[in-house]
């Protein structure tokens, strides 16, 4: 189908974009990579009066490191996030997640900030933000807020963003000594949304895993930190961790994939990821599925 | 109207298949429709118009993107290449020959998108081109006829020939 009629503006600065969003209120929608928004427009699921295109604002894109924090500009394309030398070195979890995000042509255009602001519960970046303890930096008219990922994702396509605010950057703490990570995603076909996915970070020592953060996606209305499961694994009880997921996750139930199936798959994924993190065999995956 | 100010249509100027072009584009028109309807580039095939099928894949600033998921007004200032530009320049002659030789198309609807996606993969010096990686690269391009094997064969053969050839056949063809 074809998109409904709307007006379009492409401001050249963040302040100009925020001014337009403030002036037009709920009628205005920011346009990042457009890989979900333009789809919604073409399918007439969305009918904004004005699109405020963020693609001509240079300060919103790029990856940098300062005092133990890697800052990724919101308009950095998926591909540029996952292939940046700084990200591959400092945040290998993000590099491992990249091949699971849709397809090359989508990764070339979609942005990490757009993905985080959309908060689709079956997507990779929100879970990675949660696992890595990221901070979402947002700007509204005249104000900047810094929101922990733990407090940012509130529900289905729902975040802590207020009207008129946009995500400007995501800040990731650089993992310290002994840091390990894990990532696994199951989908029916490569590039599909996840049936179940898990992004995880933690610390590994001679006595086992600690500081575990297990961020599941595709198994609730938002990415979920499985705290009880993490505590059980830190205590060396994988079976207990897998059992704990029944209370921590709320998988959607649809005819193609029953909730019970997703819960089972979440337990399988947890077993694999926790095993690799415990054994120190995590590596960047280039294959998909299995 | 300058692009900084809201309007329902904007003037754009961009490079299309090597030529500087201009157009006045309704904001709601996606880039695929702009290329087809204003410039007659009907090699930009529209399948699903929501980013799933890959038939409309083109190169924007050297990267494969979905023409249906970019707005025409967003082409302003960009370098856009469609399958017409890629093929008429001779740059992917070897890839086209491989598709022909291996019978890597039947109805042909997906072929422009397949060629553009393969062009990006083959241009990426870092991309390894095992069959597995080729399959991952074209996973976003649907073909309902071939079963994909012949397409993977064609791309793999081109990758191998470019790697092993006495000269870089792609560069040679472009000169």
Automatic annotation (TrEMBL), chain A:
Record-linked Gene3D superfamilies: 3.30.465.10, CO dehydrogenase flavoprotein, C-terminal domain, Uridine Diphospho-n-acetylenolpyruvylglucosamine Reductase, domain 2
Q: Boundaries of each FAD-binding PCMH-type domain copy? A: 1-177
The answer to whether keyword Cell membrane applies is no
Q: Which InterPro entries match?
A: CO_DH_flav_C, CO_DH_flav_C_dom_sf, Diverse_Substr_Oxidored, FAD-bd_PCMH, FAD-bd_PCMH-like_sf, FAD-bd_PCMH_sub1, FAD-bd_PCMH_sub2, Mopterin_DH_FAD-bd
Q: Which domain of life is it from?
A: Bacteria
Q: Which UniProt keywords apply?
A: FAD, Flavoprotein, Oxidoreductase
PROSITE patterns in the record: FAD_PCMH (PS51387)
Q: Name one Pfam family in it.
A: FAD_binding_5
By what name is this protein known? Answer: Xanthine dehydrogenase family protein subunit M
Task: Give the source lineage, highest ranks first.
Answer: Bacteria, Pseudomonadati, Pseudomonadota, Alphaproteobacteria, Hyphomicrobiales
UniProtKB/TrEMBL annotation, chain B:
InterPro entries cross-referenced by the UniProt entry = 2Fe-2S-bd, 2Fe-2S-bd_dom_sf, 2Fe-2S_ferredoxin-like_sf, 2Fe-2S_ferredoxin-type, 2Fe2S_fd_BS, Beta-grasp_dom_sf, Diverse_Oxidoreductases
Q: Which organism is it from?
A: Methylobacterium longum
Per the record's keyword annotation, is Oxidoreductase included, yes or no?
yes
Q: This protein is called what? A: (2Fe-2S)-binding protein
Keyword field: 2Fe-2S, Iron, Iron-sulfur, Metal-binding, Oxidoreductase
Keyword Ligase assigned: no
The protein's matches in Pfam families, at most eight in alphabetical order, are given as: Fer2, Fer2_2
Fetch the PROSITE patterns from UniProt.
Answer: 2FE2S_FER_1, 2FE2S_FER_2
Q: Which residues form the 2Fe-2S ferredoxin-type domain?
A: 10-86
